[in-house]
Amino acid sequence: MLNRLKLLLLFCIFSFASYGQKIGYVDSEYILNKHPEYKEVQSEMEAIGSEWRKEAKALTDEIREMYNALKAEEVLLTEEMYEERLGLIKEKEKAANAFNSRVFGANGQYYQKQAELLQPLQSKIFDAIERVSRRNGLAILFDKASSLSMIYTDPRHDYSEFVIEELGLEEN
């Protein structure tokens, strides 16, 4: 299925090219890394992630201490007391796993916060890409940083610097 999609995409590209349509590409990752707001977002995400990782580590440490205490007192406990404490540890493990999933899971709070912080910056970049595309009469503009495989790219067709210029970012 994926090969058919790629074949269709190549067919479309060559169809456009045969009609004299201009095609180019940008590297959105390169553009993002040039933007000062992206560094601020990264710093904020690192701070948020660090706090959440500390919470996760504290939960893990607490569970480890509970296991160590259980092991140390094991000979003094009745079977019922042992099972009760083991049950409490298992509940704490479930809570820790739930925390990790809620925060760092596929649609966790960490990734939601990252998307929330990046959205305004991505909008600015996409708007600049659209303006550059229109100004240069491009029919198709690919993103080199996306999951679409680009086997070869001719630097003549790289419009990343035009987008950086459109955003008003200077070379550092």
UniProtKB/TrEMBL annotation:
Gene3D superfamilies linked to this entry: Skp domain (3.30.910.20)
Protein's recorded name: OmpH family outer membrane protein
Xref: SMART domains: OmpH
SUPFAM superfamilies listed in its UniProt record: OmpH-like (SSF111384)
Family assignment from sequence similarity: Belongs to the Skp family.
A GO MF term: unfolded protein binding
Pfam families associated with the record: OmpH (PF03938)
GO biological process: protein stabilization
PANTHER family (UniProt xref): CHAPERONE PROTEIN SKP
Signal sequence segment: 1-17
Keywords assigned by UniProt, alphabetized: Signal
Gene Ontology cellular component terms for the protein in this record: cytosol
